Amino acid sequence: MERQVIKVGLLGLGTVGRGVYRILIDNAESIKQRVGIELEVKKILVRSLEKNRGLDLPEGILTSNLGEIVDDPEINIVVEVLGGTNPTLDYVLEALRKGKSVVTANKDMVAEHGERLFAAAQQNNCDLLFEASVAGGIPIIRTLKQSLAANRIQEVFGIINGTTNYMLTKMTQEGSEFDDVLKEAQAQGYAESDPTADVGGFDAARKIAILSSIAFNTRVPLSRVYTEGITKISAEDIAYANELGYVIKLLGIAKSRDEGVEVRVHPTFIPKAHPLAAVGDVFNAVFVRGDAVGDTMFYGRGAGEMPTASAVVADVMDAARDLVRNVPGIIGCTCFEHRPVLEVGQTFSKYYIRLKVSDKPGVLASIALVFGNKEVSLKSVIQKEATGKTAELVLVTHRVQEQNVQDALMDIKQLSSVIEVANVIRVEGEE
């Protein structure tokens, strides 16, 4: 019997859930024309049935019983916008086992449990779609899986956390210190009361794990993503970056190499002329290099109710089209290669190194000797005027292997003239 309507179950009615519901209701007619069938939200799972949702909801649409969604044969698509992994993972696996296509915005769940989820989707001939899990409304996952599928992707890197980009933008524009900008970001609602996931780089790590798995057709476990946050970035580092012709951004970086793939998150100096340098405030941008397409960049809002809901509903529409054509699961897991994920010590970059040293003759020479012994070539050196008995050295290296830099720094820390290795930041985006 030909379908007259596709019914949807919604898990969660928080910020993103409300956006999803609004789009499905407000744009119902245009969605119907584009999909070829009407979409109807039949049930919404919530923790409290009494809470005021700020929406005009039909009577009986809310439920606190998961079974009313996953056990309902009329519901064909389940949309998960609860967040977290417990008990969300169990809910989603149950929906997939019951043969329902799933759309999720949950980066934590996809990054940590993607293999189990894709296996369940494949076994039950379902769609598992997760465009909104990375970069909000920017259509980067669909682009990598479909639009750029003819390419061998060489690099994916970008700004994929709006909180840290907002903070670094403010630090750059105002010369503010990290702690002051963090308080402002929390006051503006851009940072959580516990900001660790953002400023520690963990949010970006989950996103680059997902993107690199798709780009390189190989599963990248979250545990293999080298992760470093922005907590050590100071106003001095921002000022030196500007003086040297760079800006500092927290980047997720993934590169394909003959030996394997490298995947990392860390603060990065990028040239002011690079397209990512101009991406400010809470915006995200992802730069992709393919062997056929060359360089492309995707820019937009990486979070928020409506941008994220936009990506979720687009996935719902794709899942509905597949059901209409009876081809659910047509684009499943693309991790058909099994390439090694390289250790961070095997990666190559240029480096900015800021040292606090004793202000006396021969210090620079002794430091340069250590770098030379470890095959680290210095591109430039800035020595600031001494304050009291200490001076500050800022070094920029040529492109070198990470392990060589780390070995050199271990020896430099032992020099009596070196008071502190104040910061080490990688330099990317230069040929």
From TrEMBL:
It comes from the Bacteria. Keywords: Amino-acid biosynthesis, Metal-binding, Methionine biosynthesis, NAD, NADP, Oxidoreductase, Sodium, Threonine biosynthesis. Residues 352-426 form the ACT domain. CDD domains: ACT_HSDH-Hom. The keyword NAD applies. PROSITE patterns: ACT, HOMOSER_DHGENASE. InterPro entries: ACT-like_dom_sf, ACT_dom, Asp/hSer_DH_NAD-bd, HDH, HDH_cat, HDH_CS, NAD(P)-bd_dom_sf. It catalyses: L-homoserine + NADP(+) = L-aspartate 4-semialdehyde + NADPH + H(+). One of its GO terms (molecular function) is homoserine dehydrogenase activity. Belongs to the homoserine dehydrogenase family. This is Homoserine dehydrogenase. It comes from Desulforamulus aquiferis.
